[in-house]
Task: structure prediction
Amino acid sequence: MCEECGCGSVIIHNDHKHSYTDAQHHEHSNAHECHHNQSLPLTNKVMVEKAVLDKNDRFAAINRQIFSDKKIYAINLISSPGSGKTTIVEALARHFGEKMVVIVGDIQTRRDADRARAAGCRSAQIETLGACHLDAHSILHTLESFDLNGVRLLIIENVGNLVCPSSYDLGENEVVAVLSAPEGDDKVLKYPTVFHRASTLILNKMDLSAFVNFDKEKVISECRSLNKNIGVFETAAINGQGMDLFIDYLSKRCGIT
Result:
């Protein structure tokens, strides 16, 4: 169950085999772990939420070990719908190619995974069928569809949502938050958790900032009131503006020269 909204865990409908260690064998859910049930007593709801997050953290630890063993740098990319996440991913795919794989989460369709693949990298789509975030269990399953040899960068493009994904550790090395100028400069303190967790902020669609009265200094200041060490990149991914600096940053993180 989602800590924020109560939706069930992600359901994966594909058949697969596990390819990792015995310690990673785990049970499978064929339905939501908990239905939307606002009548649960508060104590019970807290206990259920804690159990769900504890279970997620166990899978996140497995993922983290896989990334460490394979020397893969994993990014959890979080933003609202329409911020330009997939356009950013396309630019990265064109640069990193086969050294990068992408896992995309959406409620339905495989459109964004197809876009990443067309741009030059391998990709997989998780259709959550209503769940508002990805979880570590779904990432573990999806990793099994890739040959990870030679991969140095994993981009997890989370479901478009500034609230729920921020509560779930996927085993990533860092959270990258994307905020686009047309969304407005008031989002950081409205949705603080994701900006507190993120170590990097991408301000996207900055070519439009003058037309939508977007105060980037306000955004950066509010982000740093939550996380003083957050790094900031300004991009217009649609035309490549600023992407070279973010690509250089990721190349250093991944050890790609």
